Amino acid sequence: MTTVDRLAPAHYEPVHVPHEVRRHAGRPEALPVGRPGKIGLLELGFDRVGGRTELVSRYQKSPLQIMRPLYFDPARPDLAVTFLMSTGGGIVQADRLRLDVRCGADSAVHLTTQAATKVHRMDADYATQQVHLTAADGSFVEYLPEPTIPYRDSRFYQRTVITAATSATVLTGETVLAGRLARGERNAYQVFAADLEWRRPDDRLFALDTVRLEPGGSGVTGPAVLAGHDLMSTFYAVSPLAPAAEIADTLHRALADGGLPYGVSVLPEDCGAWLRVLASDPPAVAEALHRAWDAVRRLLIGAPAPALRKC
């Protein structure tokens, strides 16, 4: 049995931090890396027990925690809907957060956050968040967090590694805002960097999505970046339950009449499809992503997307 030292830097520090973020490394005068409350850990294990999926293991270290799983999807009463939460009110400098989620064979899990993730202003160092999600054979897993809002002068790196068995279905999405739009704050953060890695159980990488937004560097408002918009959203559907081209067509149809600029393509090895959409109106992009999620769900499992009440 291997014992993991959860408080060792090798566990909570990303293997690689992009240069755009790493160059801000420093030691804050108050609460540097490793002090109480700066290392947030959450480890969850789900297995199918009887007729539904149960949370069978949990370890949490503040500020990360969860609500107990709920079962309110009328079309999938076996689905364990789990809200990820933070007691910290947002991510601040020198935070190191790590989530490890294991979804066992034939389990059904929906993971989401209760509210947007706010990345606060920083004057020393940076913050990181790692998400390691494993979907075993026959599992159905949804990881759909609320948007991330990088505040003025924030520096943030997020690494998400999804390890999916070839018979597993994983739906995930992410939205990034240009800042606190209601305050007129746009692209005032120093750097937002994210890597989404898709791997197979043998650790083989089969898809990678890299985002680097550095307004003070090469700029973020031009073509091939945000193109003058305030939100960027991505939705992935990896599944063997339908041909990749059919999943892509479904995403196309879901957004065709929405009036937003978007693009859809199939993923390598025909394992699914992905969508990227730009917008400047948060409700419009939320509604577009919900349409995409709902359409893909109906295609793959014959069930609509449930309504989730959040504050």
TrEMBL record:
Assembly and oligomerization: UreD, UreF and UreG form a complex that acts as a GTP-hydrolysis-dependent molecular chaperone, activating the urease apoprotein by helping to assemble the nickel containing metallocenter of UreC. The UreE protein probably delivers the nickel.
HAMAP family: UreD (MF_01384)
Role played: Required for maturation of urease via the functional incorporation of the urease nickel metallocenter.
Localisation per UniProt entry: Cytoplasm
A GO term for molecular function: nickel cation binding
Main localization category: cytoplasm
Species of the source: Streptomyces kaniharaensis
One Pfam short name: UreD
Gene encoding the protein: ureD
Record-stated family: Belongs to the UreD family.
Protein name, entry field: Urease accessory protein UreD
Coiled coil: none
Lineage: Bacteria, Bacillati, Actinomycetota, Actinomycetes, Kitasatosporales
InterPro entries assigned to the protein according to its UniProt record, in alphabetical order: UreD
Keyword annotations from UniProtKB, A to Z: Chaperone, Cytoplasm, Nickel insertion
Gene Ontology cellular-component annotations: cytoplasm
